[in-house]
Structures are given as structure tokens and as C-alpha cells.
Amino acid sequence: PHASPPLLTQTSIPLPSHTLINSSLQWPIKLGLIRAKMGVFSNGVLVSLIVVVASLALSSSSVHGGDFFQDFEVTFGDGRVKRYGGGQLLSLTLDRDSGSGFRSKKVYLFGRIDMQLKLVAGNSAGTVTAY
């Protein structure tokens, strides 16, 4: 005879309801009622797992503001790069003479961030944005 699968029960663990902003994705994350299916795990292991996951979510999801030029530098077109909102917004301008650009001060695992706004040489029927 075949053994029947273990019964799964549902347990609800209420957490404080908060809205956090994830700094890397910039979208709201809701923490509310967590429902977990229990089968193999005991109540203690499940509660410990939920506490660890909630702690990681709270520690990695923080709102922080800073000046854009702490992490980036202007590569060309210094007069055509404007910042607004205390360094939170950046404007690149393209005119008849030149464009503008910036890059990250740090080199990351596989490269750096580089943004350039300039006209194509010769027949410039449009603009090129490379990032």
C-alpha cells in the first residue's frame, strides 16, 4: 500500500504592518500577515525562519538620501549637467556644441556605470544614449 502524504496545516503569524521603501529597487514593500504552510517544520523553526526573513527585509530595505555626486562624477559637459532636489535629480543637456555625461566613481564587479548624451558624428539625425 502507498503511504499518504503528510497533512499540511496553515498558520498565521501577525507582524506589524509597515510600508518600507527598498533602496535598491525603489518600490514600496508591504509587511503584513504572513501565512506559512507547515509540514516538515516545527513551530519553533518556522517562527525562527520568519524572524530571520523579517530582520533581513528590515535591514536591507531602508530609505536613504544622498547627493548624486558622492558616487558619480561628470565626464564631460560640466556646464550642461544640472542637479536638482539636493542632488537627488540629475539633468543632462545636449545642445549644438556638445553633450554631457557622467560615470560612477567606483568600479563594480563587472564594470562601472557610464552615461553619455551626444550627437552622432556626421549625419546626426538623432541622439545616441549609451549605458
UniProtKB/TrEMBL annotation:
Q: Which domain of life is it from?
A: Eukaryota
Q: Name the InterPro entries on file.
A: Beta-glucanase-like (IPR000757), Beta-glucanase/XTH (IPR044791), ConA-like_dom_sf (IPR013320)
Q: Which residues form the GH16 domain?
A: 70-131
A GO MF annotation of the entry reads:
hydrolase activity, hydrolyzing O-glycosyl compounds
On whether Hydrolase is a keyword of this UniProt record, the answer is yes
Q: Which GO terms describe its biological process?
A: carbohydrate metabolic process
Q: Which UniProt keywords apply?
A: Glycosidase, Hydrolase
Q: Which PANTHER family match?
A: XYLOGLUCAN ENDOTRANSGLUCOSYLASE/HYDROLASE PROTEIN 8-RELATED
Per its record, how is this protein called by name?
Answer: GH16 domain-containing protein
Organism from which the protein derives: Opuntia streptacantha (Prickly pear cactus)
Organism phylogeny:
Eukaryota, Viridiplantae, Streptophyta, Embryophyta, Tracheophyta
